[in-house]
Each structure stands twice: as C-alpha cells, then as structure tokens.
Amino acid sequence: MLIEKEKINKKIKNLYEDSLSDIIIFSSTAVCIVFVAYFLYAGTVTVIPHILYIPIILFAYRYPKRGILFSFIIAVLYLILFDILISADFGLYIDAIGRTVVFIAVGIIVSYISGKLHSQKERYMSLFNSLDEPIFLVEKNPDNSLGKITDCNQTCCDILGYTKIELLSIELSSIITKSGDAELSNEKKSPLFFKGSKSSPLEVLITAKSGMKVLFDLNFHKSPSGKTEEVIVAAKNPYLRHEAEKKITESRFRLEESLKIAGLGYWDKNTDEDFQTWSDETFRIFKIPPNSEMKIKSEDFKELIHPEFREKVFLGYDKSISERSEYSRKFKIITGDSEERWVHSRCRHYTDKRGVVIRSLGTIQDITDDVIAEKKASEQAKFFETLLETIPLPVFHKDKDGKYLGCNQAFALLTGKSKDYIIGRTVFDLFDEKTAVFLSEKDNPMLNKSGVQITEAEIPDSRDNIRNMIISKAEISGSDGEDRIVIGVMQDITLLKRTKKNLRKSLEEKNVLLQEVHHRVKNNLAAITGILEIEKSRIKDEDALRFLDEAENRIQSMVIVHESLYHSDNVGEIDAQVHFKNLFESVLTSYSPPSDVKLLLDTSGCKIDINSAIPCSLVVNEILTNSMKYAFSGRSEGEIKINLKCHDKYYHLSVSDDGIGIPEDISPEKSKTLGIKVIYNIVSLQLMGEISLDRKNGTKWEITWPRKETDSDTVL
C-alpha cells in the first residue's frame, strides 16, 4: 500500500512539473509577442524582436521534435505583426525576413541540441540501468554517515533483491554490516567523502533482502549536481579490480590517441626525478625515437631546446614552480633531424599536503605553421602601414563611434597633431566646431548604409588656412555586421579650384576676343562687298558683272559664317540649321530665280566645327547658286533639300534640287566652269573629303569629310 502511494505521488509530482513548464513556456510566448507588438507599433524594429528567442529556446528545449514548427509559427507571426504595424521600405522588409530566418535557425539549432541532450540523457539512463555494477545516490547525514538512498540502478535491485521503491526508503548505512571479519568502526561508518574528488575503495558487506551478505568495494564520489549533501556510491566486485585497471589502461590509450589527433603531446615530471615521461606524440614532435620506458633525461631535453631559448625556458619553469602558477611558453626547438621548429608548452603543478610541488603535468604542441602565418600577417600589416605612409594624401579610419583608429603622416600634418594623439579622438578634438559638425553628419549615413561617399568640404589646416578637400569614404563591416569602420582619403583641390577659376576667366576673355575678331572680319568682308557694289555700278560688261556678282556672293557666304561664329556661344562651332537657312536666304535674294523655290532643311542638330565652317559654306553656296541660276528655268516652283548628318568621325552632307539637272554630256570633274571647280577643289583640298553627283530626278550632291578638332574645342 505504501509503495503504491509513493508511485501515485511521484506521478502527480511529474504531472505538476510538466504542467508548470508548459504554463511558463506559453506565458513567456504571450508576453514576448505582446512586448514585440507594442514596440513595433512604437516604430522600434531592430533590437526588441530578439526577445522572441526566449520562447523559441524554451519550447525547443522542452519539445525538441516540435521546436522547428514552433519557431516557424513565431517567425510567421512576427512577419504578420511587422506587416500590420510597420509601414516599411523594401530594405526593412528584407531585415525582417532575415530575422525570421534567424528565428527558424535558432529553433532548428536548439531543437537539435535539445534532442541530442534528451537522447543523451536517455542513453545515459539506459547505460546507468544496464551497468553491471551497483550504483547508489545517497544522502549524507550531518554526522557524515551514509543516509537515505535517493536513487540507484537496476543492478542494485537485481543483486540485493529489493525493488527500487524499497531501496529508496532505506538508509544505505543500515544494510552495511561488515568489512571483512571486523565490524565497521565509527570512522568507517562516517567516512570523510569530500576530501578529494573521490575516496579510496572501502571493502564492506552489504546485506541483501534475503539476508545474504555480499562483498563489495565501495567507491565514494561527489555528486555531479554539486550538492554537498549527496554522494555517489559505486559498489564493485573486488575480484574484478583488474578489469577496472584494464579499462583505465584503455582510457589512457584513448586519451593519448585523442591528443595525438589534436597534435598535442604530453609530458610528466616528478620534481625529485631527473627525467621526464613523454607520450608518443611528444617524441614525434621532437623527431626522436621513443625508448621502452618512454622517458628522457632533463639534460637531453635541454639540448633539444634552441640555445636562444634554453635559459628562458628553464628559468620560466622554475619561476612557475615557486609561484605555484600555470606555466605557458612558446619557444624554438632543434629536432632530432636538426630542423628548427616552434612549440608551445603548458603545464600545471601538483602539490602534496604541505603545499610543496611534487609533480608537473604538461602538454606540448608544434605551432611552427601558426608562427609562420603570424609572421606573414605581421609583415603584411607592416607592408600596408608602410604603403599607407607613402601615400601623399591624408588617409584615416575610424570606428562606429567616430573615434579615429589610425591615420597616416599626411593626415597628422594636416591637423597639426601627432598620430598618437589622433588615435582615440573624434573630429571635435581635431577641427573647429563648424567643420566637426559637418564631418560628423557625413559619417553617420556611412555607418548605416554601405557604399562609397564622396564629399567636398572646406577644412582648416594646421595653420588655419582653409583648404578645399575632396573626401572619399567607404564603410567596412565585420562578418557579424557589427564591427563597422569608416575608411577615408582626403585630396587637396585648393590649387586645382584656383587654377580652374583662372582658366575659366582666361577662356571667357579668349571667347570675347575671338568674337571681336569674327565681328571685325565680318565687317571687313562687308566693306569689300560694298566696294564691289560700287565697282559694279561703273562696269557695263555683262561677263565682268557676272563674275563680280559671284565673287560678292562667295564673300557674302563667308560673312554669314563669321556672323554665325560671332553670335555662337562656342566660337569653335556654328549651328548648321541656322547657318544654312541664312545662306539659302542670302543666295535666294541675290539671284531671284524665276520660280518659287522652297527649302527643306534637316541638320539633325549638328554643329559644324570652325575648320569646316568656311569651306563647307563656300561649297553649299556654289551648289545653291548653280541651282538658283539653272535648275528651275521655265518653272513656276522648285524645291531644294539640305541634309546634314554628324557621325563620330565624319560629316555627311547632301544637297539636292528637283530641277532639270546637269546634262549628261557635262563631266563635273573636267568642267572648266569656276563654280564646279570651286566645289571639287574645296572638298578635296580643304575638307579632305569625297564628293559624288547623282543626276536622277534633278541634281543631288553627296559630300563626306572627316571631323577635325580645333584649338578652341580642345580648350573648351
């Protein structure tokens, strides 16, 4: 009846503990969700959502098989709350999704670990109950005697004939009766269990339920729970001690193999002995063959240490003994094949009851590769530091708090401070308040958003001279996204801006001068035209008058070019659309053809450079003149088309009319008329281009010539 009651009470207790755990888990879940929803509603989206790790971890630990599903539900619920309560841009949504991924990842990791722990606990309990040796967990009475049994494995029940419930209701000391043939003394009944990690084995007789006395070796251990009022009692068959020794040997072998895999050798030395005991791995590190005793004399070991470190190693070891401190040192050795290697040795010292060091147990590891890598890293860091100093531009880098982590000498000269002073300071310690506020405001966006920032600023130098600076900065984050730093380079453009200003002023003066030159050339050409007009009034010969008209027309085309250049914003080029229209109107006025002639003009927004403007204008003038004089004879109307295309390396000009066309018996290349000769000579000799003639449906001239850069183009 008592046993059944204890079973019922135990079930009730377990049910209560399970219900309490569930209440805690779901209460924390509700509180955390409400807390996150409140702060999301308040606009806080960064730190607060991390409290959702609490219910995820609790639930995944409690229910590892359903922990992943629960974390997924929490993640979806968080996204729903985020979408409802936050009006965010794309970047914040990406961050929110990232957090949900972390939630699920945490659920997976904790579920996995918890599952392993539960599985491990089950395995340990199964192992505990399947052990061949009886194991008791016993309370310790105030007088240090063995008290009530609080737990035991199945082997205890099988050997002693009690049920587990029965054993949990009795005191272990009550069934221990004898140690060999003698009764247990008070000291034996009340052993001091806690002087060390465990006591020496105690041979006793334990009375079984049937009254039979069974001989055991009792070993006393501290409880792994850390409770001083409990002790673990392991009962072993004394005749199987050699099996235990065998297991110890196997455990030692496993330890040595594990150390060997990790590249760790160990050594053991008693202070009163002049030799050390080494493991196989230690001999391998020193590249000397092990002996049968696995020992090496201290003098022989001393010879294996590089002479540069020999004295330091032994002095450091002696000092650690005198101070009772842990020994740790890196030093160089000379191996058995005369190779120099780096090793790292650690050891701890063990003392007797008087506190005197009697033994040292240590490890040794070959760290040659690490030392070489560290040396290379140091050399690389030194190289980059030297490279940084060779840069004539001020260079700096600062942390997320705006504190300078380092700079080169050029930056130190700019501020007038030493590099040691600058490190750990902010812009407010180096510059005036106005400059510092400006630079600080420019730093803040860099710490919140990656990328490159280029800023122009006025920075006072060490002599309080204002320098115009271009500051290029970039943000670099650590692998965890937290260790953000800003790297910046400053370029002094004060002289460049001053030179640019002077050049702009000089260019403006040059443009004014060139416009004045074009204006005067235009006036001179107009004066020549006036002289020709006066001469025409005195000449009666028709041929002479015709030649003077053509000459005057050619001069007028040049006047139009200079007029266009004078009014152009860029004296190195003219607007083809306006220029050809003015030229057409000038020729139309000069010749007054018998028909109504219309102009179809398309220049595609082209600008003609100054090197091509006058020759091109003369060519178009000759073509228009020929069309006005001959193309529309006997007609009431006519049409002239001018098309100009500008390509990267050449111009293409097309001038056509729908008139009667040039007769087939006239060869333009061999023509003796001045107008056609002017066209071909200017195209081939001045424009360095090509010309073709199409006589279908009137006359069509196709001209192509290369584009040329002028001095004005280059300056502009």
Written overview of the protein:
By secondary structure, this protein is of the alpha+beta class. The protein has 5 domains: 2-129, no CATH class; 132-236, Beta-Lactamase (2-Layer Sandwich), CATH 3.30.450.20; 246-372, PAS domain (Beta-Lactamase, 2-Layer Sandwich); 391-492, Beta-Lactamase, CATH 3.30.450.20; 501-715, Heat Shock Protein 90. Helices cover 50% and strands 23% of the residues. A 7-stranded antiparallel β-sheet has the order 2-1-7-6-5-3-4, with helices on one face. The chain has a 6-stranded antiparallel β-sheet with strand order 10-9-8-13-12-11, sandwiched between helices. Strands 15-14-18-17-16 form a 5-stranded antiparallel β-sheet, sandwiched between helices. It is elongated and about 165 Å long. The chain starts with a helix and ends with a helix.
CATH-defined superfamily of the largest domain: Histidine kinase-like ATPase, C-terminal domain
The termini sit apart by 111 Å
Rounded mean pLDDT score: 78
Per the CATH scheme, the topology name of the largest domain is Heat Shock Protein 90
Q: What is the CATH class of the largest domain?
A: Alpha Beta
Structural class label: alpha+beta
The fraction of residues assigned to DSSP E strands is 15-25%
Taken from the alpha-carbon principal axes, the silhouette is elongated
Organism: Methanomicrobium antiquum
Keywords: ATP-binding, Coiled coil, Kinase, Membrane, Nucleotide-binding, Phosphoprotein, Transferase, Transmembrane, Transmembrane helix, Two-component regulatory system
Coiled coil: 496-524
Domain PAS: 120-169, 380-450
